[in-house]
């Protein structure tokens, strides 16, 4: 199964194994990472699973939908060009090794 | 209440028939033992009293919520099947709709109640919460439902919507009718609908564009007509959704949080020690008490769910509250723990119909609990809490408390 890395705001990182078809958010919450809140449970409704995608990976992710784009404008931490909602990133085998940085705050 | 959990013997897909009325007063008084019976009887049960299927385990509730093509909403999310019965009011364009119609109206409300909009109202909501707590600290002893859980949302939400000052006393009674009407034709529902005419007239009037103040949520919905996203006849009905579901639910949510924190003083002290837990303390109260207890769906085809076969056109009752305490999903489900990872609870639903106002509810809950925890050392319950009975909503009618300043 693909593994992905979450970098905490303090620079520490956690590499987590993903399960078949799960989102980056689900992988993070299943492993108890505090930096991902996911208040809405993965329904693209709350912007509390915000991540900054590592530059080398950004172009390899599927494009974001309009609702994700709009939600990111309301994220608690600053929106950057690399901002995505981790609930909308479904981990496929080609995303093995993906690196996501977590923002200072989610609310 | 008599409960028979024995499966009807026969085929491999035999579904346990239960003699349970989840809309009876004695059930509302203490639903938890029956929730357990419903969960343990099987993944899918049949309730003979109302001739409906029921799901009470987390996995099945979540599955039904996330398969709107099979478990539809357009035939009503109450017991009444809109295909067979005339709805008591014109159906909601969002709650009682399926894709693709639902997708367009949902997008409008999502934008009007987005995280960006919450940032804009946050300071106002916070100031009102602090003002309310100041008043309560002067009183010391009060009813935490009327003076706090109702008074606070009433002091911000109708203004945020842009409603006129006159007639707001209709808001809570109207919402009470709406949520009672999802239930079966019992006394609660019949009486609610019989008394509903003046409340319905008020709401219909307030939903019109000229009655909504500029800049409010209501005016923002109407502004989408100019963008061509919705029609002028749809806009008032979408405003109605906020009037129906935006107030009573938060009253019960905030009431639930205060009731939890008053009952579990260790959790209250934990919150006082770390105010950043306020938002999750509210969220956990929504899981623990589940202000919205149930919703129905209607099957659009024959479907197999966890080994049970359900025919087309059947009503399926989802016990959100039971799912939120399913030990298959939650560790120590009957404990109120403000540090719990609450993500995934179904107190706001899940999937395409998940509460569109969830961000408003969380904001109200967070800022109110923060304001309380900053200034109040103790909350003591000083009299017997009284329950308010509704076919869908769970909450208190009164909760006498005394608070001690910090």
UniProtKB/TrEMBL annotation, chain A:
| Record's GO cellular component terms | cytosol
UniProt feature, compositional bias: Basic and acidic residues: 9-18
**What range(s) does the 2Fe-2S ferredoxin-type domain occupy?**
2-106
Q: Which cofactor does it need?
A: [2Fe-2S] cluster
Gene3D superfamilies assigned to the protein according to its UniProt record, in alphabetical order: 3.10.20.30
Q: Which family does it belong to?
A: Belongs to the adrenodoxin/putidaredoxin family.
| Protein name, UniProt field | Ferredoxin
Automatic annotation (TrEMBL), chain B:
UniProt keyword annotations, A-Z: Heme, Iron, Metal-binding, Monooxygenase, Oxidoreductase
Q: Does the keyword S-adenosyl-L-methionine apply?
A: no
Question: Which coenzymes or cofactors are required?
Answer: heme
User: Gene3D superfamilies of this UniProt entry?
Assistant: Cytochrome P450
Any one GO MF annotation of this record: heme binding
Note the InterPro entries from the entry: Cyt_P450, Cyt_P450_B, Cyt_P450_CS, Cyt_P450_sf
One Pfam family cited in the UniProt record for this chain = p450
Q: Which PANTHER family match?
A: CYTOCHROME P450 YJIB-RELATED (PTHR46696:SF1), P450, PUTATIVE (EUROFUNG)-RELATED (PTHR46696)
Concerning its family, UniProt says: Belongs to the cytochrome P450 family.
How is this protein named in the record?
Cytochrome
Taxonomic classification, please? Answer: Bacteria, Pseudomonadati, Pseudomonadota, Alphaproteobacteria, Hyphomicrobiales
């Amino acid at each position: 199964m693909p593994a992905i890395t979450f970098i905490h705001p303090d620079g520490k990182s956690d590499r987590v194994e993903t399960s078949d078809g799960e989102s980056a958010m689900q992988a993070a919450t299943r492993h108890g990472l505090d930096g991902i809140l996911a208040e809405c449970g993965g329904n693209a409704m709350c912007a509390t699973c915000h991540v900054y995608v590592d530059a080398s990976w950004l172009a390899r992710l599927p494009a974001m939908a309009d609702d994700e784009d709009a939600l990111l404008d309301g994220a608690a931490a600053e929106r950057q060009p690399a901002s995505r909602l981790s609930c909308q990133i479904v981990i496929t085998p080609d995303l093995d090794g993906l690196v996501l940085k977590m923002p200072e705050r989610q609310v | 209440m008599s409960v028979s959990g024995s499966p009807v013997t026969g085929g491999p897909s035999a579904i346990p028939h239960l003699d349970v009325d989840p809309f009876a007063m004695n059930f509302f008084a203490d639903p938890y033992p029956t929730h357990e019976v419903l969960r343990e009887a099987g993944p899918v049960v049949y309730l003979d009293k109302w001739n409906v299927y029921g799901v009470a385990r987390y996995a099945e509730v979540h599955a039904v919520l996330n398969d709107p093509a099979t478990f539809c909403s357009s035939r009503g999310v109450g017991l009444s099947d809109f295909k067979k019965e005339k709805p008591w009011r014109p159906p909601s364009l969002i709650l009682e709709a399926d894709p693709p119609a639902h997708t367009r109206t949902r997008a409008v409300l999502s934008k009007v109640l987005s995280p960006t909009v919450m940032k804009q109202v946050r300071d106002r909501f916070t100031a009102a919460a602090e003002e309310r707590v100041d008043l309560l600290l002067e009183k010391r002893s009060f009813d935490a439902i009327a003076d706090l859980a109702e008074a606070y949302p009433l002091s911000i939400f109708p203004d945020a919507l842009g409603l006129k000052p006159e007639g707001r006393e209709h808001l809570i009674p109207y919402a009470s009718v709406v949520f009672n009407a999802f239930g079966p034709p019992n006394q609660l529902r019949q009486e609610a609908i019989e008394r509903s005419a003046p409340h319905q007239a008020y709401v219909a009037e307030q939903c019109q564009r000229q009655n909504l103040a500029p800049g409010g949520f209501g005016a923002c919905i109407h502004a989408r007509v100019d963008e061509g996203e919705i029609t002028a006849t749809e806009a008032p009905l979408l405003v109605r959704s906020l009037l129906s579901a935006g107030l009573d639910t938060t009253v019960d949510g905030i009431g639930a949080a205060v009731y939890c924190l008053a009952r579990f003083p260790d959790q209250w002290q934990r919150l006082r020690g770390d105010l950043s837990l306020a938002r999750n303390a509210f969220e956990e109260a929504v899981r623990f008490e589940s202000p919205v207890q149930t919703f129905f769906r209607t099957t659009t085809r024959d479907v197999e769910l966890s080994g049970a076969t359900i025919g087309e056109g059947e009503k399926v009752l989802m016990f959100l509250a039971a799912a939120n305490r399913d030990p298959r999903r939650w560790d120590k489900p009957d404990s109120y723990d403000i540090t719990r990872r609450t993500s995934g609870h179904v107190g706001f639903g899940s999937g395409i119909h998940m509460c569109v106002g969830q961000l408003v509810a969380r904001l109200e809950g967070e800022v109110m609990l923060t304001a309380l925890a900053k200034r109040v050392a103790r909350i003591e319950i000083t009299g017997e809490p009284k329950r308010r009975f509704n076919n869908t909503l769970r909450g208190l009618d009164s909760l006498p408390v005394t608070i001690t300043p910090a």
